């Protein structure tokens, strides 16, 4: 098998071969069995280099490009042009008429062979799809009735005079970027050959828009007095929330960690006197990958000193408005950014990131049927207009999908003439209520329940925590179903932003190691008026945290921070019950807070998700040049991969079997 040599290395070799005869070089210090010595083998090398100086590939200077493929219009008629790009499959109509679409980043132009030159014809016939060429020709208006209205260059074609094949593409490519989307191979194959997939106009558009958007943000922040500052990628392991990636060093037992976010550094920058910081920050979290998560991702990260939440939110609204104008030509103003508390969001929508593009609010009906509801419970009710049109199997599938099959406290009923005044009696445990027959009229009136509707009820714990309630999940599932059936219409160009605020500062610890965990991160400040509750009832303490939500997706989150070292230590120590050695890992931050740190706050917006919304893609992978596939794999370079035993040794590491840990 031929050794792979890069073109650059090949040309260096050629230059070298031309200049001198190669002798074996064997300096004394290289005479070691493990050292690979350069040996003369002129004949063999010459043979290998044949494939470099081959006849399919043009060697030498080629004419300079005059236009981009997508730029040519009828006005260019008669111009002599030079184009560069990738050829798509030629369409041979006859010996003397061949069409060759030529694509570059700006679009596609049709080249046409009409000259009858046998040499040129032969060159065209040798071209494999996706070969890179330089084409010279004359712009011609297409004959009457032949223009292509779908294509920006559809009024013209370029009559080919000369073509230089700068680099032929292999004839066994796994796919062609120009082939119809429905015939493309699955995503795994496309991720493996990402450089080919990225040639597709859809992905080109997304990645280019990404650059435009990031520049819009950068410009807006710079114009508003922000300084762009890079913080370290080699950071330290601190128990901030998510699982970290660890980086070994050549010092036994000493590790860096990759940052989950620049949180601690940006707070230290406030202590350092950089009033307004921002960074387009790469962050790393070693979490189980969901469809819209990547182990490395990008955030628009900012922090400001001496500000209120409102001032910070105005800055964010400013650049979001600029992005929407630039990317979508949509005008936003302050009225597009309403506020809602966490409690309202959870009660009315069963979610801390409510999708308010449709109404379907959840109602609390505890008071109507209180005799069958325990003190610490609440009764959620959702009314789906025309919901009786959903079939039994659709509702069963919903129960399966949401794991509700054995949920005793969940029930639903289709409202008809017979049950409209007694429907709770059809709802599981509610049938034991003494109120049945007395409360329906009022409920029907208040919730506009009519024949043909679907009514769903769920008894839940009254203490609200976490990201959603069961009825919130039901609401989203049903909204999707209703949309599929054409019973609910959501305009795809609707953008409903929401600031969600007043989150509980602490939530019950998911790992059950301690009582409380920070709902977001441990640096969020409590509301001043809730400080006394820190010692008596931490569940009731509200944090000065805010999330920016768009169409039911969280696109950013931040907070006013704790700037007092006393408060920060109290929360680490007494509320979060971190062990001393755990909170000592934050000493650098506590020291910075003690060194004259201004009051401050900040936010980070998930840039990949934002781009995915702007590009209307179903996955964030479509807006990232080289995303990871399922399981965190990079299929292009095939990582993560093993390292050699020597490398392990250098880092004092040993790989052991999973079950021996
Ligand atoms: N560092 C936080 C995060 O990455 C955002 C912030 O509070 O500014 O989620």
Automatic annotation (TrEMBL):
Coiled-coil regions, chain positions: none
GO biological process terms held by the UniProt record? aspartyl-tRNA aminoacylation
Q: What is this protein called?
A: Aminoacyl-transfer RNA synthetases class-II family profile domain-containing protein
Q: Where is the Aminoacyl-transfer RNA synthetases class-II family profile domain?
A: 207-627
What family is this?
Belongs to the class-II aminoacyl-tRNA synthetase family. Type 1 subfamily.
**Which terms does the record give in the GO molecular function aspect?**
aspartate-tRNA ligase activity; ATP binding; nucleic acid binding
Q: Which PANTHER family match?
A: ASPARTATE--TRNA LIGASE, MITOCHONDRIAL (PTHR22594:SF5), ASPARTYL/LYSYL-TRNA SYNTHETASE (PTHR22594)
Q: Name one GO cellular component term.
A: mitochondrion
Q: Which Pfam families match?
A: tRNA-synt_2 (PF00152), tRNA_anti-codon (PF01336)
